[in-house]
Design goal:
alpha+beta, Nucleotidyltransferase, domain 5, two-stranded parallel ribbon, 6 helices, 15% strand
Length: 148
C-alpha cells in the first residue's frame, strides 16, 4: 500500500554540494543555485580553503559538472570517480538520503522556508551521526590503509 501525503507542485529549487569524512564525521556543505561545472568549481575552491592544511580525496560520480575539462582542481584536492550508476558506493549519498527522509511529507511556504529547514537539519548533524551514516567498514579500512 502506498503512503498518502501532501504534495506541493512547486518547481523552484536549490542544490547542495557536500563532502564528508567517514572516519571522523567531519563535513562540509555548500548551497548553490545550480548544479553545473561553475558551481562545482565554487564548491571545490571553498572546500579546499576550509581544509587547506590537509590532502583531501573527494569521491564523486561522473556527472558532467564533476568531469568538466575547465575545472581547476586545487592542489590539496584529489578526485576519485566511481563507476557509473553506483551511488550506493558514495558515502555522501547516505547523508542525502537521511536529509530527504527528514524532509519527506513536509510542506514549506516557499523556497526560503525549505532552505532554512535544510540549514537547520545540516547544522544538527554531529560528527558521530555523520560517521555512523557514512563510515562503511570497507571505506574506513581503505582510508586507514592509505594513512598507514
Amino acid at each position: 500500500m502506498q503512503p498518502v501525503g501532501i504534495i506541493q507542485h512547486v518547481f523552484q529549487s536549490f542544490y547542495l554540494y557536500g563532502a564528508v569524512a567517514p572516519t571522523s564525521g567531519e563535513r562540509f556543505f555548500l548551497e548553490s543555485p545550480a548544479l553545473n561545472a561553475d558551481q562545482f568549481q565554487r564548491f571545490l575552491d571553498a572546500f579546499s580553503q576550509a581544509f587547506a592544511a590537509s590532502l583531501n580525496i573527494l569521491v564523486l560520480d561522473t556527472s558532467g559538472a564533476h568531469t568538466a575539462r575547465r575545472l581547476t582542481i586545487p592542489e590539496n584536492v584529489r578526485l576519485v570517480f566511481l563507476p557509473p550508476y553506483c551511488p550506493e558506493l558514495n558515502p555522501i549519498e547516505r547523508v542525502w538520503r537521511d536529509l530527504k527522509d527528514e524532509l519527506a511529507w513536509r510542506e514549506f511556504a516557499d523556497l526560503a522556508a525549505l532552505q532554512a529547514a535544510v540549514t537547520r537539519l545540516l547544522d544538527a548533524y554531529d560528527d558521530p551521526t555523520v560517521q555512523s551514516l557514512t563510515g562503511a567498514a570497507y571505506l574506513v579500512d581503505a582510508v586507514h590503509a592509505l594513512c598507514s
